[in-house]
Structure prediction request, 268 residues.
Amino acid sequence: MPRFSLAAAAFLLALLPLAAAKAAPAAAKAKAPAAPPVPPNITALMSKGGCKAFASLVEASPDALSTFRSAVEGGVTAFCPTDAALRPFMPSYRNLSADGRASLLLFHAAPVYYTLAGLKASNGPMNTLATDGSARGYNFTVQNVGDQVSIRTEAAGAAAARVRDTVYDRDPVAIYAVDAVLEPVELFDTAEAPAPAPAPAADAPRAAGRRARHRPRHVADAPGPAADDDAAPADQRKNAKRNAAHGGPRPRWLAAIPAAMAVAAALV
Ligand SMILES: *[C@@H]1O[C@H](CO)[C@@H](O)[C@H](O)[C@H]1NC(C)=O
Ligand SMILES: *[C@@H]1O[C@H](CO)[C@@H](O)[C@H](O)[C@H]1NC(C)=O
Ligand SMILES: *[C@@H]1O[C@H](CO)[C@@H](O)[C@H](O)[C@H]1NC(C)=O
Prediction:
């Protein structure tokens, strides 16, 4: 009897690894459907939430689209102007260069996830996806009055944009519909600035100085003829001149290269 038990135990022990080996693939199979969640399609969400025209502009700007997409992974709060709010702004939008357009679109999102409650608790300046790391700028002011969240810029004639609707809110992405386009002072004159001089003065030093704060960050991204076709030629020329004069700001992705190379070096 004891001898039989030992034999049985040995037999069972011999089978054990086989059973484990058989069970392993089954477990892997069961786990496979639980793939990592797909990041939300931010432009599709905006479209569904009443910001179809704004979403189309983002999709038509490769620079803005790629920045929005990568921001979705790290946390983002977007403020999309409704179609009714965007319509009257379109002539001004078309007047911007490709760089200016990308900056304007990126000005409509903060690189931080805010719930509506979090937003109501954050009065004051807020950086955006258009904010340049070192030069700052492209920030707006969040202002809460009662239960109403508003966003203000110093651009002349720009109305405060009021948050009208929560389009989407699931950590780490929030999208709120606003009832006005946010105008950065870097692209639109401030209230104190004198009225624009007539055409011949456009290239005069004084005019250049007043607009020097407009520092396009996307210079390196727009070399192709396709990009040139898309830009307002006059604005493009001015940008080229300013970039020659100031050496041009470093695009953010360029600043990321040394860090990426350091990581690569550490891996090998
Ligand atoms: C996001 O949705 C838009 C439609 O609104 C579609 O054109 C686009 O291809 C989608 N992008 C991705 C990455 O799925
Ligand atoms: C667009 O630019 C032109 C030429 O600079 C100017 O005359 C016109 O007023 C601008 N339109 C808007 C809506 O800004
Ligand atoms: C906001 O941007 C302005 C330029 O438009 C800059 O002078 C100011 O320092 C910025 N504020 C913050 C808090 O970054």
User: Anything to note?
Assistant: The radius of gyration is 27 Å. Residues 2-31 form the longest helix (30 residues).
